[in-house]
Amino acid sequence: MKYGASQYRRSEGGALSPRETEAAAFVFVNRMLSEHGDALTRMRALAKNQQLWSMLLKDIGSSSNGLPDILKADLATVGFWAVRTSIASMGDDRPVTALLQVNEDMIAGLRTAREDSGPVPAHMRLVMAG
């Protein structure tokens, strides 16, 4: 019931915050990674994960990114690992457990971090369908 009420309040309040948007993108990608059934679906899920992390890396490297330098460096390290691992996993059957866990950590961090009420930058608006 809590989920339905929060979704109702969210629709009443307008657009998602940037952090909520990023968390939702990680939830979407993790669902794809968890529910892949065949090789093609797995490849699509890994490609979406690689795309998401690439977009975050682009934002981290932007001069307009206001995160502390140490946090940007840590996120870049994790991001480059996630991109490399996603690409490497497209060519074999290795488990995606580590990618799922890193994404879960990002979801938790985004949901507990202080909210930013600013608009989502155009380059961070995800088109995750399909």
How many distinct helices? 5
Number of strands: 0
Element-level helix/strand string: HHHHH
Structural class, by secondary structure, is mainly alpha
Low-confidence stretches: 1-6, 115-120, 123-130
Radius of gyration, CA atoms, in whole angstroms: 15 Å
Strand fraction equals: under 5%
Residue share in helix: 55-70%
Instruction: Characterize the largest beta sheet: strand count, sense, and whether it forms a barrel.
Output: none
> Termini distance?
29 Å
The rough form would be described as globular
Query: Can you tell me the number of structural domains?
Result: 1
Average per-residue pLDDT, rounded, comes to 84
Task: Describe this structure in a few short sentences.
It contains 5 helices and no strands. With 130 residues, the chain is mainly alpha-helical. Helix 2 packs antiparallel against helix 3.
Question: Explain this structure to me?
Answer:
The chain has 130 residues and is mainly alpha-helical. The protein has one domain. It is 69% helix and 0% strand. The protein has 5 helices and no strands. The longest helix has 23 residues. The chain is globular. The N terminus and C terminus are likely disordered.
SSE topology sketch:
Blueprint lengths: L1 H12 L4 H18 L3 H23 L7 H21 L7 H16 L18
Characteristic key phrases:
130 residues; mainly alpha; 5 helices; disordered C terminus; FlaF; flagellum; cilium
